[in-house]
């Protein structure tokens, strides 16, 4: 191994990407793997991006983003979720990914601990490790894949001798598709407040909730919440790389430095497209949500017909399902076998931490045809296993 930083040596490319790469050569594979919208960026946003190139937006922007973008984000997140961030409390980042990294690197001291409900998105733990801090996982498998006040209080109590600094929440949740009601969040905030924790709240899927409206955590705990959001999922803009960190000014002032030395600023062209999305694209996410909801409804019907256990998703575009009992082996082995034999690719639950073992994630950010064909193949394969 090359003589490099030992923390980097210990981390790996995410299980999502590794699995996806491993099965990419299977002929005629239908991929329900990577979590990005299959839908195109809305036309009016693309047009704004094209115009930005024509208008020579080819220079650096201010570090935190164009003021017009900060102002548009401030208004948008206020209208959508009643958040009260002033424009100068918002940094435009290179997707939510950089937002999470900048927030964690700025907040954490070496030796700090971060509470993390699991299974969870893959990018948190490696970044926490890079900051010389560590994760205290809170297993949510026995509580419907949701963090409960009792589970949180128990984790705080058990780890009271550690330097508990923050809790990282993500809802609607990748990989399980669960989300929280306002009452559930308020009950969690009571425990968080008592313990004096900062919250990093990754709400990148906030526009994709089905049976209930999204409650932003910062509306309940404004002084100690760092809100992460962005346009990747709400406006089908993953490749434009535009996210946001929103936090009280004292925190943002510190994060601005981390952001500068990591990336300087995000793409000027994307920022202009972002201004359009945030100003005239308030309904864009809702149209997409209706499409995802129809797909979710289709998938839960198909999985129920196959007697596959799953967590009923109330947000995001993921469905977390249990490896069929007939299959003896790990979730990685299951997903590999399904890819090779049925030509359907799903992500093994273990990619989302030990708590995900025994389960698999379906991304339904895929066309209706792909969903129908993949479920037909899955059903045929299952029948063959049971024969
Ligand atoms: C929970 C969560 N946070 C952050 C991200 C990264 O978002 P972005 O593409 O804006 O960097 C993802 C992407 O899948 C995600 O699922």
Automatic annotation (TrEMBL):
Protein family membership: Belongs to the class-I pyridoxal-phosphate-dependent aminotransferase family.
Cofactor(s) named in the record: pyridoxal 5'-phosphate
Gene3D superfamilies assigned: Aspartate Aminotransferase, domain 1, Type I PLP-dependent aspartate aminotransferase-like (Major domain)
Presence of keyword Transferase: yes
Top-level lineage group: Bacteria
EC number of this enzyme: 2.6.1.-
UniProt organism field: Lactiplantibacillus dongliensis
Gene Ontology molecular function, alphabetical: transaminase activity
Protein name stated in the entry: Aminotransferase
Database matches in InterPro entries: Aminotransferase_I/II_large (IPR004839), AspAT/PAT-like (IPR050596), NHTrfase_class1_PyrdxlP-BS (IPR004838), PyrdxlP-dep_Trfase (IPR015424), PyrdxlP-dep_Trfase_major (IPR015421), PyrdxlP-dep_Trfase_small (IPR015422)
Keyword ATP-binding set for record: no
CDD domains, alphabetized: AAT_like
Aminotransferase class I/classII large domain mapped to chain residues: 28-370
